[in-house]
Each structure stands twice: as structure tokens, then as C-alpha cells.
Amino acid sequence: MPVQTPCLWFDGQAEQAAAHYTSIFPNSAVTRVSRNPDGSALVVEWTLDGQHYQGLNGGPGQTASWAVSLSISCADQAEVDHYWDALSKGGEESMCGWLRDRYGFWWQVVPTRLVELVTDPDPGRAHRAQQAMLGMHRIVVADLERAADAVPA
To answer: What would the 3-class secondary structure string for 75-92 be?
Structure first.
């Protein structure tokens, strides 16, 4: 199967963004920078814990949207907090575990426990967990569990 690599559009910030992202994720590195004749970066390639990415300094006029986001599956609250804090700094927090980073790209920071709770075989537990998530920005696992376990009135 051919390798698929997301390519993100930047307005001159691809090299800076790649350095930022690789400082956040373990086992990550900038792997190649293709330069224009004037020495500025044209295409920057990097890996985030094994996942390949490209950044294209394509110029102004193209912006990221909610339609495409990068999702991080987090093992626990510590991971959620690490990625949330690092990626939201200089960006914008949104609802339900979504944030926009300082470069305009959307991320979903999702604890695996959220998926377990909202797919619980007990529809009441799943519904209560989902309702709790809808009121959160950063997902807080303990609050999800507390909501799922709440006894209905």
C-alpha cells in the first residue's frame, strides 16, 4: 500500500511549525527541508512519533478549517494535558476536545477512555458521558467517569 502523508499549507511558517510540533511529540524529528533559490523553506518534512507529515510554504490565501483535523489518541489524562497545553498555547481552545494551534490547524485531543465511555453497552452511561463531554473544552477523564456513573434522578 502506498504511504499517505498529510501535507499542511503554510504561509512561510512550515519550518517553524515543524520544529514546534516535533518538540511536542516523542520520537519526532524534522527529516528534510527543500529550499527555494533564496534559501527560504519550500517543503518541510517531519515525523511525529512515526507519522510522516509535509509542510508546504504555499503562500497566503489558504487557511485550515474544521473540515480536516489531526486527532491524538491519548492513553490517560497526563497525555491529554501535555498535548492540550502544548498545542493550544498561542492558539484557541474549542469545545469537545478540539483546539486550533498557533498555525491555524485543528487538533482533537481525545482520551481513549472517552471512546470507551461513549460506546458503553449501557446506553444511559454512554449518554451521560457524551453529555458531559459536550460541555468540556479540554476533556477531563475523571469528570466523564463521574458523569457516566451518576445515578439518574
So the answer is: CCHHHHHHHHHHHHCCCE
Residue with cell 476536545: 97
Query: Where among 19, 38, 60 does a domain terminate?
Result: 60
Q: Which residue has the cell 490547524?
A: 105
The tens digit of pLDDT for each residue in 80-93 reads 999 999 999 999 99
* Amino acid residing at 149: D
Pairing of strands 51-57, 7-10: parallel
Alpha-carbon distance of 84 to 81, in angstroms, equals 5
Domain residues for 55?
Answer: 1-60
Domain count, the chain: 2
C-alpha cell at 7: 501535507
